[in-house]
Amino acid sequence: MKKMLATLLALLLALGAAAALAEDGYTKDETVYANLDASGAPRAVYVINAFDAETGASVTDYGDYKSVRPTTTGETLSATGGEVALSLPEGRYYYQGELNGAALPWAFDIAYLLDGAPVTAAELAGATGKLTLTIRVLRGDEAYKDFFDHYLCQISFLLNARKCRNVQSDSASLAVVGANINVSFTHMQGGESAYTLTADVEDFEMGGITITAVKMNVAGVATDKIAGLTAQFAPLAASASALKTAGATLTGGVAQITEGMGAFASGVPFVTAASANIKTGIGGIHEGLAALVASGEQLKPAAEALAASEDANVKALAAAWLAQHEALAQLATAAASVNTNYGAFDTGVAAIAPSAATLSSSFGTLQSGLTGYVGGVDMLADALAAIPGEVEKQAGALMQDMTGSGYAARSFTSDKNAVRSVTFSIRTDAIAKPAAAQPTGEANEPLTFFEKLLGLFGL
After folding, report:
1. Pairing between strand 65-70 and 180-187?
2. pLDDT digits over 125-171, tens only?
3. In this structure, what DSSP letter does residue 403 have?
4. Burial category of 5 from C-beta neighbours within 10 Å (exposed 0-12, middle 13-18, buried 19 and up)
5. What is the pTM of this model?
6. 410-430 burial string, b = 16+ CB within 10 Å, else e?
7. How far apart are CA 258 and CA 271, in angstroms?
8. CA separation for the pair 109, 437 (Å, rounded)
9. Is the separation of the CB atoms in 150 and 249 below 8 Å?
């Protein structure tokens, strides 16, 4: 298992080395390893400094190291005054440094309850009962606040499925992997949170908790999702624009009819000519309103779906459109009634003159209602046209906060260093019963560098 993990780690480092070299002829990547006790208190912090050089170079690296040693060559290194003098060969070069102090961007507080009572990790080893495990992720050393603000933490560990039953957590991803249950929490950057898990345990033991911290980067995926969201508004905005144009035409027609009614009502001599104009106009209004209502009915399902949106602006706009559509339907009903009644009106010219004032007033009401409706459609069309841009603007600002757009990687060991990337690999002690004494006198196969590195974290 160790050899497989060592090979995988070597492969990942080799893939990283394939990136373009920096302008000064080399790049540097830092991997920060930290050992915590089972309660989350840090004990030691190590940094593997990986250089990739185009050609051999003399480099000064910086950091407050307690000790340093190369891992790829046999020379002796020393840290003097916070400086490490290096002679880089062509290609990949590594050295390891143990830092003075154990400060991290995060503080981890890991607490255990057994049957509701606090216990230590040592007391929990081999115990049976109801386990409650809580991991609190808090802000750590302020000197490293930008890592806390821009890095995502993946917290994971394995539980023995035969000894841990009824494993439950509202915030964890749980996956059965063979005889184990893989527990994984994702802690977003910039915040403090607590993650809790409960289980019925028997003869309890648990491997160390692994915490990997990397700079969050989901901008590409998010951009595609935002583009898809804004595209959904295009058909509705286009339809609202068409309604706006049709509404303007209707308003002009109603204005002409109202003007004709005024002339008609002014005197009986003008009744015959005005009646013909009015009858034609009424028919046009009736047909236009009917067409608008039919068009609106096709859009109604989409507007009702948008009315259930969690976005307050979208929800308000959809509700406004639905209200305007209902008003238009009522106007269409009124227009149909006017169109029907006008036939009888036209047949009785003698009765037209006394009714002219009432009919003129009705057309004034119709014109007022249509003017209000068209004004509402104009506002809705303009607002819908502006939605995609506003969504992109607001989502862009949100994604900048989430992804840390514009954040440049900085060195964990010293601001004097230029780095390409910084990654954190943190591991707690395992919870285990005291191991039985091992037989002596057996020769062990020499460990590779990566196996030694993994051994620091119990892998």
Report:
1. unpaired
2. 999 999 999 999 999 999 999 999 999 999 999 999 999 999 999 99
3. H
4. middle
5. 0.57
6. bbbbeeebebbebbbbbbbbe
7. 14
8. 32
9. no
